[in-house]
């Protein structure tokens, strides 16, 4: 059975292009805008309708893959739309519902909605496998929040980005302003882009440190490059890759001494893995190593 079985929904197309690699394609025409519109999905031969928002369904997908312990070793997020990645939030969709009455209670309600939104868009951070995002065309507002939460970011050379929130009267609150100071190296350029919302190119995104590679071409080219990277990662020890992701994330959010202590505790257990002798045997025999799943699937 394919690792992608039963995972696709109306706006999220999930496939397994190569062994142990999933591709999640955003597919909400016309511009992959995130809203509160209902999403349909199927359960066997039964068609259902869920009140899941597009962004909630996105986060729930990643959490489900992890919860079901599917043997996924790398995942690529992309857009199924040929001209762009995402136009961000669908303002007409009313992401945060209007409230009336007591101001404190209204504010608390808004806080809770924003935390749900942050959790959904940040779901790739919780996965035990690397998440690579391949973007092309426009990447607007929430689209940048989304890609910032991924581990590796590739951009087609036709990509254009904008941190759009200041133009609608707010500070970006779903991830961009939290992640950018941690994942980019050019803080002067980062501040300029966040304050002005001006459109910037794939070349500037590379200069900023937002993306690690600019791929000549468009949608198919950048997705192909991302899938090639994912396939390479999928051949590595799941214990080693999962541990590396966890330790890198910890390092981003903690001091060097704290991270050294964390990795010592982690590897005190992880060094006992059978993946090490398997990797050594494969290297000596000049063959591809065969690694067991990270954990027993629940399927």
UniProtKB/TrEMBL annotation:
Q: Which InterPro entries match?
A: ClpP/crotonase-like_dom_sf, Ech1-like, Enoyl-CoA_hydra/iso, Enoyl-CoA_hydra_C
Annotated GO biological process: fatty acid beta-oxidation
Pfam families for the chain: ECH_1 (PF00378)
Its ancestry begins with: Eukaryota, Fungi, Dikarya, Basidiomycota, Agaricomycotina
* Family affiliation: Belongs to the enoyl-CoA hydratase/isomerase family.
Any one Gene Ontology MF annotation carried by this entry is: delta(3,5)-delta(2,4)-dienoyl-CoA isomerase activity
| Protein name (Swiss-Prot/TrEMBL) | Delta-2 dienoyl-CoA isomerase
Q: Where are the transmembrane segments?
A: none
Q: Which domain of life is it from?
A: Eukaryota
What PANTHER family does the record tag this protein with? Answer: DELTA(3,5)-DELTA(2,4)-DIENOYL-COA ISOMERASE, MITOCHONDRIAL, ENOYL-COA HYDRATASE
Instruction: Provide the leader sequence positions.
Output: none
Q: Provide the alphabetized UniProt keywords.
A: Fatty acid metabolism, Isomerase, Lipid metabolism
| Naturally occurring in which organism (per UniProt) | Mycena indigotica
Q: Which GO terms describe its cellular component?
A: mitochondrion
**Involved pathway(s):** Lipid metabolism; fatty acid beta-oxidation
């Amino acid at each position: 059975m394919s690792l992608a079985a039963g995972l696709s929904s109306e706006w999220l197309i999930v496939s397994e292009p190569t062994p142990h690699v999933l591709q999640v394609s955003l597919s909400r025409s016309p511009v992959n805008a995130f809203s509160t519109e209902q999403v349909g999905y199927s359960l066997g031969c039964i068609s259902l309708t869920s009140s899941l928002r597009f962004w909630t369904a996105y986060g729930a997908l990643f959490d489900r893959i992890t919860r079901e312990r599917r043997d996924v070793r790398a995942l690529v997020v992309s857009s199924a739309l040929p001209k762009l990645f995402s136009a961000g939030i669908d303002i007409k969709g009313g992401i945060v519902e209007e409230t009336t009455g007591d101001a404190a209670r209204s504010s608390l309600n808004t806080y809770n909605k924003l935390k749900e939104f942050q959790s959904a868009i940040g779901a790739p951070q919780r996965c035990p496998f690397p998440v690579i995002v391949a973007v092309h065309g426009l990447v607007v507002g929430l689209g940048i929040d989304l890609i910032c939460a991924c581990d590796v970011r590739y951009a087609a050379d036709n990509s254009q980005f904008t941190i759009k929130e200041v133009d609608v009267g707010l500070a970006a609150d779903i991830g961009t302003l939290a992640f950018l100071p941690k994942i980019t190296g050019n803080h002067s350029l980062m501040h300029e882009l966040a304050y002005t919302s001006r459109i910037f190119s794939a070349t500037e995104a590379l200069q900023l440190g937002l993306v690690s590679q600019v791929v000549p071409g468009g949608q198919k080219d950048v997705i192909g490059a991302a899938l090639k990277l994912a396939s390479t990662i999928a051949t590595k020890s799941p214990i080693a890759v999962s541990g590396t992701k966890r330790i890198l994330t910890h390092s981003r959010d903690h001091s060097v001494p704290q991270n050294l202590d964390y990795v010592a505790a982690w590897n005190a257990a992880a060094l006992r893995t059978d993946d090490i002798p398997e990797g050594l045997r494969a290297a000596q025999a000049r063959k591809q190593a065969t690694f067991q799943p990270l954990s027993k699937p629940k399927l």
